[in-house]
């Protein structure tokens, strides 16, 4: 082994091999030069993105700037957080090891867990948000996605995962209650759970819209379920710990499922069998969410999310390669007039605060904190893996967001706004759409109705006009980039429909993990009530798990189905709340992290979570204020409510976007609900923030306060820290393999390098 001066081996039992490797070897000169070169390349790319204007700006600069920044941030800033705040101890048993029960607590190989965690956090946000925000230009979105992720999103995900891992995998709302007391805890529990239900229904609606009437998507996405079940059984019973083997098998089967989906969709029987109505797809998603919530996590949820990660990351990497090769010219301006005037067709509102609300999951997302305090802390093998899972997983999602932004800004701006402006503005026809976008004062030659129709024909669609929501625009941009170096124009329609299916798979993995997390949250909340309900404190209690899963699926499933059957009802009523509610969750998560850091006496490093907390509060409170009090009906809920109510009282039969009295009544009802919930959410978050401030002041005055961190329990397993094992970790893993050969009754799946 290496010199003890550089590598320390930690044992918790003299009869067992080491359970931890503490590697303090200094960075070699070669590595220093590599990081210096990466930093220099990233700096040059940033300079080109930020300062160069005109035809010389192309998408490749964004890829280089992003990847270089991520590498430097992960190696240095994340390591600073690890050393000064997290201070991982691999001789301490994680919840997965200490409470392993084969259902919810199950130590999982860090490669599989990374895949599960990334797949669970990466929902609609990193795909759709940057596409919509492209109307403000490429520079603001690029800055927020990359810098926001490094300083805010990754910090939140990493530190919430650390908190929950040290607290038996407790949910975010429960940790707020435990660390802040009854008042802050009540606000946190209620706010987190209600927002979670809205987020789940919103994400499920996106999946329904993507899979409905899509036999290719239904078949391919459906096939990932039996493939995942096979992978789970393979890792658990057939070949424990052989992650590389099952990964190859799973990828091959996934590729076959995707290719077969296209074949099946082209057959009469396949088109008839797998072309499903939106309501049918909604019911299937609710059923799948329930199964993923109650089945053992190793059987379906973790392997399916891990499998999905191959497609997610593989497609994004393929897109990045396409950008590097094709070097598409950036069509959008650095900062558009819509960013300043706040009157963009895709969404209303100025750059601050609405850019930071629209781009959520790619930079900072409260939903991530729910996953980091839900499934992931119950599966992690070692505390040293938290940096890879929490910080690294969020960096990967940020890269997804950057690639989505690059596809959007590479599309001709006239076509971009043709797709993202509502039908009331474009008129729904090529000629009227051309007239509208040509009047926006965009750069470049005007577009014709024939060119708009030709763009639709190129991707096999009847129309691309007013295909709002961001997903069709992303698919269109991906088809152009991928088609430019793989298949040409003849395969552009293939890549478009592949991208639509890819987006559905991307988002569905968030729905299943989110449902399980919501089950944990409800279980924790009920357990606080005491008495007979105290049994709910055990999240793996089978009766409680089934009850909580039924309630959770019933709640988000009900508003989903109402929205599917009524374009102005159900989740469609709550959809506009998604962005702000998600960022309000992040404020609560960062608040409890800041409280714990101060309580533990790490006041010198409290700025790490406190800076993004203050920024997020400024963004969300400003956005909430404008949504509640703005006199502009296009922006303020109550202003729109009053305008429609007055029009209805005046006897109008149509007004604004409402074509008849029933639609006007629906808008009046919806804006009342939206405005009321906006007030409730803002108040709950302010309560949590004020209580957090009060607790921090108390902790500073007292020189620290006790936390609810679980007592230490010695670990009796070993697992490497990173995706790739070091030489020291391989030697220790070999010792464990030899030990298990001699003691097969103590076989652990966590000791393979």
TrEMBL record:
The chain crosses the membrane at residues 33-53, 59-77, 118-138, 144-163, 183-208, 214-234, 246-265, 280-301, 313-334, 346-367, 388-411, 494-511, 543-562, 574-598, 605-625, 672-697. GO terms for biological process: cellular response to starvation. GO terms for cellular component: plasma membrane. It is found in: Cell membrane. The keyword Transferase does not apply. The keyword Transcription regulation does not apply. It is a multi-pass membrane protein. Its main location: membrane. Keywords: Cell membrane, Membrane, Transmembrane, Transmembrane helix, Transport. Belongs to the peptide transporter carbon starvation (CstA) (TC 2.A.114) family. This is Carbon starvation protein A.
